[in-house]
Each structure stands twice: as C-alpha cells, then as structure tokens.
Amino acid sequence: MAELAGISRDGAVAVITIDNPPVNALSVPLLPALNHSIGSLEESPEVKAIVLIGAGRTFIAGADIRGFQDMIEAGGSGDPGLNPLFERIENCPKPVIAAIHGSALGGGLELAMACHYRVAVAGAQVGQPEVKLGLLPGAGGTQRLPRLAGIPEALAMCTTGAPRSASDALSLGILDQIIDGDLRAGAVTFARDRIADGPRRTCAIRDKLVSIDAAVFNAARRDAAKRDRNQIAPLLVVESIENATRLPFNEALAREAELFRQALFSPQAKALIRGFFGEREVARIPFAKDAPVLPVRTAAVVGAGTMGGGIAMALANAGIPVLLREADQAALDRGLNTIRRNYGSAVSKGRLTREVADQRIALITPVLSYDRFREADLIIEAVFENAAVKKAVFEELDRAARADAILATNTSTLDIDEIASATSRPASVIGMHFFSPAHIMRMLEVVRGRATSDTTLMTVMATGKRLGKIAVLAGNCAGFIANRVYFAGQREAERVVELGATPQAVDAALFDFGLAMGPLATDDLIGLDVCRDIRSELSRRGTLATEMMIEDRLLEAGRRGQKSGAGWYRYDENRRANTDPEVDRIIDDHRRSLGINPREFTPDEIVERFIYPMVNEGARLLEEGHALRAVDIDMVFIHGFGFPAYRGGPMFYADSMGLPHVRERLLAFGHQPAQLLDRLAGEKRAFNSVGTYQN
Ligand code: 3HC
Ligand code: NAI
C-alpha cells in the first residue's frame, strides 16, 4: 500500500507521493492507500501540514476510466468512490496542499480542490474533461469549481472540457501559487508558511454563489445544445452547477452523484469512453510492434497544392523542418501564399502568436528541384491524383532520396503497390492519406502496400502521433478504409433520393442523427468531380457497381459542388446552401429514366439506409484483413468524416443496434450481408468482439 501513496517527511511537513503509473489515475487500489496515508498523518503529532504530489510525468489524470468501462460492461454502483476520501481530506485538521505538475484533470482536479491549497509549476494544466467522455465531474467538481472560479468559468470549463493553463488557473482562483524551480521543495515551503493559517475548506466558501442570474444557466444550456447537438452530458453539467446555487453543499453533491450515474450508464458515455481507448488502441499494430522506428528529423513534401501545403504545415507545426517542392515558381508562390494566409488567420483568431507563426513558416523551405532531398528522412508526395504522374514522381524520388528515406504518397484511391513499383525500394513506400485540411483534420490513414516493411509502417505511425494525428492502419484496397466505406453509404443516400426523398430530407435526417454535415452536402464540399473520380476507381477495382447516378447528371450540367457555386445545392457568396429547382428537374428526369414512382422516407429509414451499407462494407474490410479492428474503422469516421463520437462510429453503432437487426435491414434494402456480419449476427456477437488477428 505504501508505494502507491508513500510518505516522506520534511520537518513538520509530510509529503504523500502518489505513484500509480502511467498517469496516477485514481484507481481502486490507490484509494485505500491514499486514505491510509492521510489517516496516519492526521494522527501523527509531529506532522503539521501535508503535501500531496504525483510521481512521474503528472499529478493525477482523473478517476480510472478503465474502471468506468468495466462498470458499464459488468454493472456496478456507478460510484467512483472518491467523495468519502475527498471529504476526509477537506476535514483534515492540518492544511493539505496539492502540488501539481503535468495535469490535474477530472478527479485529479476534484481531489486538488478538496485540498486546502493548490500550487503548481508553470507548465501544469487543470481541467474537468469528463464531458468529453459523456460524463460530468462526479466527485465535487460541479460544486467546488464554481466556488473557486465562479459560475461562468465553471460552466465554461465543465461544459467544454477545455483545460486551463497554470497562469490562467492562478488568475481564476483555482491555484494559490505558481512554483518556480523544484515543485516538491516549493510546495513544502508553501505548506510550512500555511501551518499557522490552518485548513481552508473550499466547500464552505458560499458567498460567491448567491446572486447569479438564472439566465446564465439558460444561456449555457442553449450554447451546449448548439455546440454539442444531441448530447446529454453537457446539459447534466449545467444542471449540477445550477444546483450549487440552490441546494446546500451536501445535497448538491448527492445530486451530482445521481446525475453522474445517469451519464455513466448512458449509451453516449459507453461510446465516448470506448472512443477514448480506441484513439489509443489504433496505434497498436500487433504484428509490427517490435519493429524499430527510424528518426524523422527532416521531411519533404512534393506538391504545394491544397493537400501538400496543409501537410507541410502539419509537419512544421510539429517542429519538423520541411522542404516543399513544386513544379514551377508560380505554383510554389501560390502554395506559399496560402500557407502564409492560413497562419495569418490563426494569428488573427488568437490561436497562435505572430512569433510562433513566423517560426513555423521559417521551417518550410520552398524548392523547385530535388537537389536537397537527400536531407529528408520522410518524403510525402501530394501531386495530382493520377497514377502515371505519381509513378513519374516516385521514379525521381527513388533517385533523389537517401536509401533509408521513407517515400509516402497522399493518394486517396490509387494502388500503393503500383506506385511502389516505380521505385527500387518498395519496402520503404507507404500511403499517408491525410484528410483536408491536412493541418487541421486529425485523421491519417496509413496504407500498407504488399512490400511495405514493418519499420516503414511503425515510423509513419509514430510520425502521425507526433503530428497530433490519429493514425489508423488501412490495407491497400480500393478506397482504403475511408473512401471505400463512405462511398458505400453515399451510394445508398443517393438511392434514397432516386426513390423519392429530397436531397434536403436526406441531409437533414443525417445531420439530426449527428453527422457534421449530410452526405450530399459533403459531396458538394469534396467536389462532385472528385467524388466521381473516386467512385470510378472503386468501380474499376470492383468494390462499387458502375451505374449512372444523379451526381453524374449534376456534373453534366456543370455542377461540380461548392467550388462551382452549384452541386446538389446552389451556393451564395457566403457558401450557404440553397435549394435549386434545376436540381429537382434533374432528379425527376433521372427517376423517370429508371421508371421510379417516388415515395416518402422517414428520417429513421434514411439513417439506416446510409449507415448500414457502410457497416456492411466495414465488415468486408475486417473479413479481408484490410482493417485491423472495428474500432479502427470507427476512428476513421469520427475523426475523418464528422461521425458523431457519442454514437461511437458506424461499427459501434451497429453493435449497439444489434447485428441481427442490421442484417435484417440490409436484406430489406436489397444488400447481401457480408459473411462476417452474417456469422456474428448468427452467433449474437458484436464487431467489437473481433479483430482480424484474433478472430
Ligand atoms: N484512467 C485510466 N487510464 C488513463 C487515464 C485515466 N484517467 N488517463 C490516461 N490513461 C491511460 C491511457 O489510456 C494510456 O494508456 P496506454 O498507454 O495503455 O494506451 C496512458 O494512460 C497514457 O495516456 P496518454 O497516451 O493519453 O498520455 P499523454 O501523455 O498523451 O496524455 C493525459 C496524458 C493528458 C493525462 C491524457 O491521458 C488524458 O487526457 N487522460 C484523460 C483525462 C480525463 O479524461 N480525466 C477524467 C477522467 S473521468 C473522471 O475523473 C471522473 C471524475 O469526475 C469522477
Ligand atoms: P492540387 O491540384 O491542389 O495540388 C497538386 C499540386 O501538385 C499542384 O500544385 C501541382 O502544381 C503540383 N505538382 C504536380 N506535379 C508535380 C511535380 N512533379 N512536382 C511538384 N509538384 C507537382 O491537388 P490536391 O487536392 O492537393 O491533391 C493532391 C493529392 O492529395 C491527390 O493525390 C489527391 O487525391 C490527394 N488527396 C486530396 C484530398 C482533397 O480533399 N483535396 C484529400 C485527400 C487526399
């Protein structure tokens, strides 16, 4: 027990060091250990003050999320078991000081707020991120934080989950002091100076709470409903913080615990908690886990268009110097101007200081030749989506790059093996499919060709993490994971329009379901010409039927989507979508050519028709081994296509609806269920229970 919460002494000050790697989560074994240490110090007459500090890289990253997952799966009380311990700390007759480095998040901040004082190093952060897991602070956060930082700030922190820096936390009253130099020594000195002052209980500070206008809570509810459409946790947060103004502390705390349980056992928390672990699980590639990872000190990008420019920014943002090559000076100037404009807008929005923006721009070196490409450890090609053009570039790269350099392509559809065949080093060739805008979107599909070595793969996976991306391994099949699965759903969304729904009804149903944007509006954003090219590559490689679609007719009418001002919708100068009678006429003609008598669709059927074919295609990817796990597919859709995280991704959503139901609906829509789906439905199992390397 002693090691989890070991005690050391510095004169009259005792220091409890919480040592529960990797992030000192408040796990079941830690709580009694901490309780025991506090109890023994309460009784020790020589100890006059107590410092609580974390060992390793951080203070406390919160309650144990794995424990919550187990409670959801196996049942349990839904009680994190923290309140009695925090009450004990708060009632301790000796001043207790939390000494924070790294992060004090969730239960970690709640513990710190139950202490009588809080000090931190300048680089620390504090926050209540529970809402991102579909939860609310469940151990006093909604009661103590408003008392320390005020209601508006508590609402902001707890409804968004955004952390605060140490300096902000100091000015908000969450921290009492920033410690320069050694944290332990500084905290001990701070504690010694507080011995005469004695304990100071946060929950007793009530005066800040009385006169708050109820309109603040209504505004917070409105904001949350808009920002976090369909989500329950942010609303529960507001309710619980409002309770701080109308209930005595202990009653409000008991109500917080009830609301916490309500959130914890909701499907949304289940999906979001699974997503938290999913984001980390996708990095684990069992068959390559021991492969050495090469250092990436310098990178190069070929093509400074939409994607190349964004990729160069993503590299520069991670501090990696990058050579950016274009075919001619005019294209290079255009690309650099866009990069400068993007950084400029980040500065004007206050996201970046001018100084940092300039440092990043300085990391990008524009070039017109491959002369300096020998400096690059990783080269990413982002030229036009054309196999011949890309192969010509790879032939040049093969000559220009060092033997140990990795050559990556940003192709969204082309065959990695074919591109690799243009080089003498197919083991070093790999796909890095960034999503647009590449410096913002977190998804990165890493596509492994037949010859790609494990070292190439793991180096690129590690680089993805460095860039702040969620890198997911995909097999080298047509469309990889993202486009192959998306276009299966997109095809069906169009079919619903063919059969009678309006484009607006389709997009509205899926927007209301929680997608960032309906699929037809998404196609307008991608560009209907780009969609057609992807679909024809999928058809060429046999994973999508070839047929005349409404989008082909829209293209014939010169409607290429947002970029041409018209696609499924007509766009005004602010890019707002409006309905267009010409589209109705095109749809009517198309229906007539197919002899279709239009009928109505409910929003529920539209959702099923879009999602289940995607699930079916996802099942095929798993069957073929082109995706490692269902969660990999889900992460691609959450982080690449704006699929609602609180629904867990298409595969998780299908699991939650029950695979026998999904199978039945697919048959009703005229789709042949994938073998894996058939089998799992028959066995009453879920996608979440299989992985290609373990099924
Ligand atoms: N519980 C259980 N495991 C946790 C955890 C937690 N609270 N926080 C992190 N971990 C695990 C991760 O799963 C990961 O495990 P792995 O190595 O096996 O994949 C490991 O710790 C390291 O985490 P990261 O890879 O995320 O490490 P980073 O250094 O990149 O980030 C961090 C550190 C900022 C602390 C980040 O882990 C984080 O944001 N953690 C979650 C914080 C959080 O949401 N806290 C609230 C929990 S809910 C709660 O407290 C309820 C309370 O109100 C009652
Ligand atoms: P783009 O047309 O904006 O940019 C391509 C750039 O490559 C042009 O600036 C062109 O001058 C340059 N180029 C062509 N040949 C070159 C050469 N030999 N050397 C140096 N530069 C050369 O195209 P975009 O949209 O950036 O696409 C690039 C790649 O990214 C394509 O493979 C595309 O499929 C893929 N992709 C595109 C996405 C998007 O949303 N635009 C999303 C994901 C992938």
- State the CATH class of the largest domain: Alpha Beta
Largest sheet properties: 8 strands, mixed
Secondary structure class reads alpha/beta
Number of DSSP-assigned strands:
19
Q: Quick one: CATH superfamily of the largest domain?
A: 2-enoyl-CoA Hydratase, Chain A, domain 1
What proportion strand? 5-15%
N-to-C span: 39 Å
Q: Major sheet: order of its strands?
A: 12-11-10-13-14-15-16-17
Mean pLDDT: 95
Using the coordinates shown, work out and report the CATH topology of the largest domain: 2-enoyl-CoA Hydratase, Chain A, domain 1
Q: How much is the radius of gyration in Å?
A: 28 Å
Task: Work out the count of structural domains.
Answer: 3
SS summary, helix count: 29
Question: Architecture of the largest domain, according to CATH?
Answer: Alpha-Beta Complex
Uncertain stretches of 5 or more adjacent residues: none
Describe it:
The protein is an alpha/beta fold and 695 residues long. The chain folds into 3 domains: 5-265, 2-enoyl-CoA Hydratase, Chain A, domain 1 (Alpha-Beta Complex), CATH 3.90.226.10; 296-476, NAD(P)-binding Rossmann-like Domain (Rossmann fold, 3-Layer(aba) Sandwich); 479-601, N-(1-d-carboxylethyl)-l-norvaline Dehydrogenase, domain 2 (Orthogonal Bundle), CATH 1.10.1040. The protein contains 29 helices and 19 strands. The strands form 4 sheets. It has an 8-stranded mixed beta sheet, with helices on both faces. α5 (141-149) crosses α10 and α6 (151-160) runs parallel beside α9 (215-227). It is globular and about 85 Å long. The protein starts with a strand and ends in a 13-residue tail after the last helix. The structure holds 3-hydroxybutanoyl-coenzyme A and 1,4-dihydronicotinamide adenine dinucleotide. The site of 3-hydroxybutanoyl-coenzyme A has 26 residues, from α2, β5 and α4.
